[in-house]
Amino acid sequence: MAEIFEITDFSAPELDVYARLTENQLVNRADPENAMFIAESPMVIERALDAGCVPVSFLMERRHIEGKGRELIRRCGNVPVYAAGLEVLTELTGFHLTRGMLCAMRRPKLLSPEDICRGAGRLAVLENVMNPTNIGAIFRSAAALGMDGVLLTSQGSDPLYRRAIRVSMGTVFQVPWAYLPEDTGLTEFLHQFGFKTAAMALRQDTVSIADPRLLREKKLAVVLGTEGDGLAETTISRCDYTVKIPMSNGVDSLNVAAASAVAFYQLGRINSAGI
Fold first, then answer.
1. Residue 132 is inside which H or E element, if any?
2. Phi-psi region of 86 (alpha: psi -120 to 50; beta: other; left: phi over 0)
3. Cα separation of 164 and 172, whole Å?
4. Tens digit of pLDDT for each residue in 243-271?
5. What tens digit of pLDDT does each residue of 14-28 get?
6. How far from 198 is each of 63, 77, 191, 206, 207, CA to CA, in Å?
7. Is there a contact between 142 and 261 (Cβ–Cβ < 8 Å)?
8. Is residue 32 classed exposed, middle or buried when 0-12, 13-18 and 19+ CB atoms within 10 A define those classes?
9. FRET label pair with 117: which of 61, 94, 111, 134, CA 20 to 30 Å apart?
10. pTM value?
11. Closest CA to 49 of 72, 28, 68
């Protein structure tokens, strides 16, 4: 049975994880066994628990203890629950809790990119995508539109940053992801596992996203680049395809998250008939 703690002392060290630690401090690279992340909202917390993430504590509105949080608390055994009214939680955290519930959790062990590649037919590959909001939106599209996994470069944003998790609606716990090895080129690594690579880029020497050759590929990795600059020229030159989304009304590009949704919808399918 969980023990409920009414918040009376904002300086309590048990609350540091919610109110005072930065994202980089939560990652705790010096002690990865004790690294944490924050899941926000009942749906996100539930998806994290379903994925096997280990809870450390809860912070929630008092009214949720016997409401939305009741089943989540029950699932977590004797994990401590810190509770107060919404106005107190807003003062503590410095922002309004739109769902009134947070859960600190241990970061899961990272998957290997090799394992993800072996079992996948369609992958999203993110080169240096920096904005956590975009990361979260891309994961949500990947989950909804047929991608089997996401691979990221280490220079990009962390999928377990609080905002990325929130924007993804917890799908970062449903789509397997891993970091690409730094000692091997992006395309070279993917080619080892039989993937053809499709660079999403604004160039003239491109094929349309509707090109039937893309659907005929049994294993295809959709490669998207950082906000603003897009993919590195060396990455584009090494990919098997350079793919462009046709535009209208003088619009020259889409935000990377919006482009990912279009690309995943069109390319996240395999034409098994080979037509």
1. helix 132-144
2. alpha
3. 8
4. 998 888 878 778 999 999 999 999 987 65
5. 889 998 899 999 998
6. 49, 46, 12, 10, 10
7. no
8. exposed
9. 134
10. 0.92
11. 72
